[in-house]
Amino acid sequence: MSTEPTHSGRGGARWRVAAALLVLAFSAAAMPAAAQVRVNAGTQVKSIRFRGARAVPESQLREILQTRDRGRFFSVRSGFAVLPFIGPPAKRPFTAIELQRDVVRLRQRYRDAGFLEARVRYEVQADEAKNLLRIEFVIEEGRAVRVAQVTVAGPDSTNPPPVPEGQEHSWRSVEGTVLGLRGHRLEVAEVREDQKRLRTWWLNRGYPAANTRVTVDVDSVRGEAHVHHVVDPGAPARFGPVTIGDSASLPEPVIRRELPFQEGDPYSAAALDEGRTELQELEIVRSASFELPSPTAEPAAPGGEGPVVPVRVNLFEAKRRQIGGDVGYGSDLGFTTEARWVHRNFTGSARTLTFSALAQTGWLALVEDPDKRYRASVSFLQPYLFYRRFSGVLSPFVEKRDDIYDRSLEYGTNATFIYRATAFRSASLDYRISRRQVYEYQIENFTDGSVDLLTLLSLAAKGVLDSLGTIIENSTFTASARLGALDQTVDPRKGILFTPAIQVTAPSALSTTQYWKVDGTLQGYLPIGRHGRITGRIGGGNLRPFGKSLPSASEDPAVKFLQLRDVLLTAGGSDDVRGWGWRLLGPKFPDIRFVDSSGTNVLEADGYVPVGGFARTTFSVELRMPLPALGKHVGAHTFLDGGRVWTDDARFDNDGDLYGDEQWFYATGAGLDVHTPVGPIRLSLGYKLNPSVTDLADSKDILDASLSGRPLSDLPRHQSRRWQLHLSFGTGF
To answer: Whole-angstrom Cα distance, residue 669 to residue 204?
Structure first.
């Protein structure tokens, strides 16, 4: 195939000849500029600039240069080299001949962008004392060539290609995309992309020998281009015999069931790509490949249906057993560690057995009373359930927790049914049944915020917590999905992702509470320049109790509210609204304890505990940019977060929002991102823009004011509480 443009106007020479002449011309023109500057082996480039570049982004021009500068803030980066994980800046010696070649590269880039008359030169300024150069490329773009006509023809270059029956609408769609180039500036990359698009259409519809050619005729006088695509589909073919290479662990039936094609199916390049992906998603398979001989080398299929394409499947397997784990730290949770033992081919049919142990210690957390959890689980994955896109996971578990709610032990199991179309298109249905034994309630004085403190203390004295029970049963169904498209799974720069979920308790006999819960998050990523990006996130949820979770006329709403404490919606934390600590945005209450002082129980308050609510909405907008002064592994981010948590059910809201915690709250801030050999480190400092009284007042002052009847408006506000620090890092082993 060819994308080499030709001239049909004055001059008539092909671009290839012109490019060769330009190489000589610009090499000769560049030499005197370089010769005027004394350079040696230690000479480096301090900076590279562009003047006159408008049509082609400067970031693209820099990518094609082989001459590199030292980068900005070189002296600062050199000073930071003494710190861990930040190495010294790289040395980039200057080469005069490479600079001359860069001129040719820039000239060719502009020719590919449709600027046939573009002129490129450079100017050099030398700092002989420091042995440094400043280089400025001067670009005169000239007139751009516009695409006047686009045609798509068949093998004879005149008539349309023979479209298979039933595929006319699909072909008109892809052809219309190609023809849409008319009227735009000629861009060789776009022409090549259209050429690839046409060929791919035929490859995915049974034509393995499909070929496309493209000719670009340029009228340099008028500044117009004519793009002519020629499509030669070749003969249609079908998949021939599918043979399996040697596999130490997987039998042939297991491998074949993951393939979306079999012998006799119409050939499809997309089916081959999908089959490769399906195989590589098996834990035991590290990589998969297909061997396909030329279809013309094989005899025609029976009945004269054309050639066949035999396929050989080759697998490279991973180790059957693996030991690994993770170590991390979050300012909200403290140090966390997890250990795993995995058998990637349990019972020999690509099943996976995993034993894992998690310890969320709370050690060195920056919040008061961090959650502590210790969990052990066994996970059994069946990768094929009736169909290759379906899989199932059975996960019995046991978990001990010690948090602001209670000290308890829970055991149960999860059964999950998963449908996976692509990496970013999947759905799952999970059933969880569990039983929790509560040893001690930590929330001696905790309510939904709808009653005042004196009423709360009265409820505690009457033994309200005893009515909650020490055995909590749970039976829930959760349907969730993952929908979107990202440029990469880890640390994406472009794309969108939506993750909705809906949960309901059923049957009622197996669950202490009854409710519906809907939640969802929409995330977006937009690149800015070469390394920057804007990320956005908006999320919301709603909890609707029913049945036994609704208070009757003789029942206290506070008791029913407390029974739902594990599923109440909260906000705030390092991955949420960062001006607030873990779950502390919105309704909260002083963390009150009865302390024995000389034989007398005395009330004390130390910090706050989150109350949560039946509804939540949060958002975040963040700008991430690199920090050249600190090296390529260090970046910065600035953000604006916001959220609201509230209860909009009158059956649970008696006295309204006493502390003003159910309104919208906003925070802004900035931080650093550092990529290190031991994992990413993220540091963020948030600032509350409109804090509530409980955000700024000491919990002890809130307690004293409530007991004495003093108005909360008289309490001292501590402006230092507007600031919230978040720190997290993690690694694997």
So the answer is: 49
